């Protein structure tokens, strides 16, 4: 497990916050850099025992910051649009330029993690693993294009500076409890299970946030130059229908489904075999969480 002084960029984000608390529990000295634009966010993070640094990663100097044993580059600018020059520039600055600046500054670190996304892949009828081809696609979201570029910058910096690096491609980090609750509540209400937004796929391999944080913390142990690439997704390829079927079976109710024909069945299914081989199987399986919550609702 990681030890020593660590830096988390984007520490106010969903993954950064959870990662900080996990590493604090491992007795790491945690530093967090972010813009802290939300009032009170810096005070909250500092109250955990984190040393905070307010920086624009794409522009501000880092000379006043110390060296770190490990760097977790989680900072991201999420933009779902596919056009707009100004948007593209902002997304590239945060997701691409910042990664190069971070790697150059802390090139003496024992390991650097670059948080990427499964969205840089083309859709595939088979689960995506580390050997699946990656190609730039100008029709994809600005975020996906910037992450593709970030990976190229990461490879260059890793080789140029000899810094051990791991690129972790996340596939749908969620809280399994939240997804399972949606399935159970939909069946109880006699309604179809809805996605949280139009972008949520009908079939996917969601990884529980707690498992993702564990894998993120451990993955720097596999850092190398050139970078190690790892796929980080959940262990099950499931659909909303599958989840409602499980809930309906336990509750003794017939689920109501949306017309599957109206959905675009995105094919971004993760094959995380390599990650699991290195760091163990995930603790959470979404189908088991649905069954547990449905049983609790039935017995209530």
Model regions low in confidence, pLDDT < 50 over at least 5 residues: none
Bulk shape: globular
Figure out the total of helices: 9
Helix and strand succession?
EHEHEEHEHEEHEEHEEHHH
Distance between the termini: 40 Å
CATH topology of the largest domain: Rossmann fold
Radius of gyration: 20 Å
CATH architecture descriptor name of the largest domain: 3-Layer(aba) Sandwich
The largest sheet, given as strand count, sense and whether it forms a barrel, is: 7 strands, parallel
How helical, in percent, are the residues? Answer: 25-40%
What share of residues are in beta strands?
15-25%
Structure description:
β5 (111-117), α4 (142-161) and β6 form a beta-alpha-beta unit. Strands 3-2-1-4-5-6-10 form a 7-stranded parallel sheet, sandwiched between helices. A two-stranded parallel sheet has the order 7-9. The protein has a two-stranded antiparallel ribbon with strand order 8-11. The chain has 9 helices and 11 strands. α3 packs parallel to α4 and α5 packs across α7 (240-251). The longest helix has 21 residues, at 85-105. The protein starts with a strand and ends with a helix. 39% of the residues lie in helices and 15% in strands. 43% of the residues are buried. The model has no long low-confidence stretch (mean pLDDT 90). The protein has helices at residues 14-25, 41-47, 85-105, 142-161, 176-189, 209-219, 240-251, 273-279, 286-299; strands spanning 5-9, 29-34, 51-54, 70-73, 111-117, 165-170, 173-174, 203-204, 207-208, 228-232, 238-239. The chain has 300 residues and is α/β, with parallel strands linked by helices. The protein has 2 domains: 5-172 and 207-232, NAD(P)-binding Rossmann-like Domain (Rossmann fold, 3-Layer(aba) Sandwich), CATH 3.40.50.720; 175-203 and 234-269 and 283-299, no CATH class. The chain is globular and about 60 Å long.
């Amino acid at each position: 497990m990681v030890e020593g002084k660590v830096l988390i960029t984007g520490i106010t984000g969903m993954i950064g916050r959870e990662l900080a608390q996990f590493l604090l529990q491992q007795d790491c000295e945690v530093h967090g850099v972010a813009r802290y634009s939300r009032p009170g966010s810096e005070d909250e993070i500092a109250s955990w025992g984190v040393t905070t640094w307010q920086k624009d990663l794409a522009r501000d100097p880092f000379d006043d910051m110390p060296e770190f044993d490990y760097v977790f580059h989680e900072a991201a600018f999420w933009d779902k649009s596919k056009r707009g020059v100004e948007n593209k520039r902002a997304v590239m600055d945060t997701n691409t330029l910042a990664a190069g600046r971070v790697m150059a500054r802390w090139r003496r670190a024992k390991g650097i993690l670059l948080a990427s996304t499964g969205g840089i892949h083309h859709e595939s009828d088979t689960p995506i693993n580390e050997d699946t081809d990656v190609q730039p696609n100008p029709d994809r979201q600005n975020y996906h294009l910037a992450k593709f570029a970030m990976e190229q910058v990461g490879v260059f910096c890793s080789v140029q500076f000899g810094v051990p690096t791991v690129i972790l491609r996340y596939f749908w980090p969620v809280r399994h409890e939240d997804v399972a609750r949606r399935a159970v509540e939909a069946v109880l209400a006699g309604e179809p299970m809805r996605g949280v937004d139009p972008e949520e796929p009908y079939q996917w391999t969601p990884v529980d946030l707690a498992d993702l944080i564990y894998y993120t913390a451990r993955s720097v142990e596999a850092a190398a130059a050139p970078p190690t690439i790892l796929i980080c997704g959940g262990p099950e390829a499931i659909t909303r229908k599958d989840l409602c079927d499980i809930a309906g079976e336990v509750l003794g109710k017939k689920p109501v489904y949306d017309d599957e024909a109206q959905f675009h069945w995105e094919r971004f299914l993760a094959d995380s075999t390599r990650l699991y081989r290195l760091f163990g199987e995930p603790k959470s399986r979404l189908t088991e969480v649905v069954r547990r919550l449905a049983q609790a609702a039935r017995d209530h």
